[in-house]
């Protein structure tokens, strides 16, 4: 890591190099433990040519009830030629009454690659809490050399029809997406990913290949199972796409 700075409690912890000096592992830390109404979190990451970074979080991201103002998070990732960023956070939990706005913007130069995921938990099912009030606005865009590779937007109202619709959440409380972007997905890799399924049977999952993009989707009731499935896919994708064995962040063992 050549430079880091922060304003407020959001910060990057000490850089670690458990694989080799060329792969930097860092954890994004928010000591307050949750995001409340009116909070605005912004993360900017710039990778130089051939740089390789693995980013994770030490625990779940919690979005608290917002009686007045919405809470916001913006992620801006810029990767120079040949760079690679693995964004592997733990789950995101929407408390009942949370008003959330998130924005992911990834700019890839030629030869750069991004592998990341997001696991959304709508309410706290283990505590008997459903997400019945609030809303979520989400925007994700990945470009390479200025051309869009993948873009997705969502505007969800808690307690609305989307949660129960068969073309929406279908009654499930956890929705997750994995994206691998920046390199061609060959048929052998796609087949290998499709042979892997979540362990919980009461879930829906699928893997799709687009030009230079692989998408994996999960619908279910277990953020832990979504995480385990994504981690298993990551162990297949990382050697195939990045040419490195799958060395998990140390925080995953905690």
Walk me through what this model shows.
- By secondary structure, the protein is mainly beta.
- The chain has one domain.
- It is 11% helix and 43% strand.
- It has 2 helices and 16 strands.
- Strands 1, 2, 4, 5, 7, 8, 10, 11, 14, 15 and 16 form an 11-stranded mixed beta sheet that branches. It has a 5-stranded mixed beta sheet with strand order 3-6-9-12-13, with no helix packed on it.
- It starts with 10 loop residues before the first strand and ends in a 12-residue tail after the last helix.
- The model has no long low-confidence stretch (mean pLDDT 94).
The radius of gyration computed from the alpha-carbon positions, rounded to a whole number of angstroms, is 18 Å
Give the helix tally: 2
Straight-line distance between termini: 24 Å
Portion of residues within helices: 10-25%
The description of the largest β-sheet is: 11 strands, mixed
The global form is globular
Low-confidence stretches: none
What does this entry show, briefly?
The protein contains two helices and 16 strands. The chain has helices at residues 187-194, 223-242; strands spanning 11-12, 24-29, 40-47, 52-56, 61-63, 71-79, 84-88, 92-94, 99-108, 113-124, 129-130, 135-144, 147-157, 174-181, 204-210, 213-220. The radius of gyration is 18 Å and the shape is globular.
């Amino acid at each position: 890591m050549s430079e880091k700075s922060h304003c407020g409690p959001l910060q990057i912890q000490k850089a670690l190099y458990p694989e080799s000096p060329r792969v930097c592992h860092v954890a994004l830390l928010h000591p307050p433990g949750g995001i409340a109404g009116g909070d605005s979190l912004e993360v900017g990451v710039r990778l130089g040519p051939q740089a390789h970074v693995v980013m994770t979080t030490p625990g779940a991201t919690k979005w608290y009830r917002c009686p007045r103002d919405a809470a916001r998070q913006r992620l801006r990732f810029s990767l120079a030629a040949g760079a690679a960023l693995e964004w592997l956070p733990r789950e995101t939990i929407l408390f009942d009454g949370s008003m959330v706005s998130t924005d992911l913007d990834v700019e890839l130069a030629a030869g750069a690659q991004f592998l990341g995921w997001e696991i959304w938990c709508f309410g706290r099912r283990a505590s008997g809490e459903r997400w019945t009030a609030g809303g979520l606005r989400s925007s994700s865009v990945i470009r390479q050399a200025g051309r869009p590779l993948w873009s997705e937007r969502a505007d969800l109202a808690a307690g609305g029809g989307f949660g129960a619709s068969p073309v929406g959440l279908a009654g499930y409380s956890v929705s997750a997406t994995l994206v691998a972007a920046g390199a061609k997905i060959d048929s052998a890799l796609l087949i290998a990913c499709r042979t892997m399924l979540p362990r919980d049977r009461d879930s829906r999952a699928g893997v799709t290949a687009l030009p230079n993009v692989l998408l994996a989707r999960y619908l279910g009731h277990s953020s832990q199972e979504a995480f385990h499935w994504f981690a298993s896919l990551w162990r297949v994708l990382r050697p195939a796409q990045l040419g490195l064995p799958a060395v998990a962040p140390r925080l995953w063992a905690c």
